[in-house]
Amino acid sequence: MKGNYIPNQYKIYYHDNSLLLAAMDEESGNDLRRNQNLGVFKGAVYENLVAEALVKMGYPLYYYKKENAQLEMDFFIRDTDSLVPVEVKAKNGATKSLNALIENDKYADIRYGIKLCAQNIGFNGKFYTIPYFCTFLLKRWLTARERKGA
Fold first, then answer.
1. In degrees rounded to 5, what are phi and psi of residue 128?
2. Pick from 2, 16, 133: which is nearest to 78 by CA?
3. pLDDT in the model for residue 150
4. Smaller CB count within 10 Å for the chain: N or C?
5. Are 113 and 84 in contact (CB under 8 A)?
6. Which of 2 and 46 is assigned the larger pLDDT?
7. What's the rounded Cα separation, in Å, for the pair 20 and 60?
8. Which of 12, 149, 28, 10 is nearest to 82 (CA)?
9. Which neighbouring-strand residues pair with 128?
């Protein structure tokens, strides 16, 4: 993936999710502590949480955004024979970009994907759904999956 990396196109994440929350304005911080208005910040907080977990597992952070902005993917990781897009969903909505990457013959290295969300573990034939709180197990799961030859 490093060969396709474009240094001037990047996202910035906090190394620690607590720092992200502390950097918010006082009203926003108070809202989050009272469990109010999470919807406004949920996507950013969850994406930062996943970025933090991926880095702690040793994954570099890569994302993709097509020039026309119709296709965007939060993260990419690799297993031994596939590029694996990882999408973080704040809501249980559609995953257009994930489906497009998996189904498009242009992206032959992508055989399946991962959707991190507030749903149970599952597989729909294209991508795995994994609850956010299991993100820290992703590397271990991918290793076990490769050993089984899945």
1. -95, 140
2. 2
3. 62
4. C
5. yes
6. 46
7. 19
8. 149
9. 114, 123
Q: Which helix (H) or strand (E) holds 113?
A: strand 113-117
Where b means 16+ CB within 10 Å and e means fewer, 100-119 reads: bbbeeeeeeebebbbbbbee
- pLDDT at position 58 is 93
- Residue 71 has a CB neighbour count (10 Å cut-off) of 16
Angle at Cα 44 formed by Cα 85 and Cα 58, nearest 5°?
50
CA–CA separation, 78 and 110 (whole Å): 9
Q: Quote the pLDDT of residue 124.
A: 92
Given a contact cutoff of 8 angstroms between Cβ atoms, the answer to whether 142 and 77 are in contact is: yes
Sorted by where each begins, the domain ranges of the chain are 12-148
**Alpha helices, DSSP H, located in the chain:** 17-23, 26-33, 38-56, 96-103, 138-148
pTM, rounded to two decimals: 0.85
What are the Cα distances from residue 37, in Å, to 32, 33, 55, 68, 124? 7, 10, 28, 31, 32
Give the residue with greater pLDDT, 133 vs 31: 133
| Three-state DSSP class for residue 140 | helix
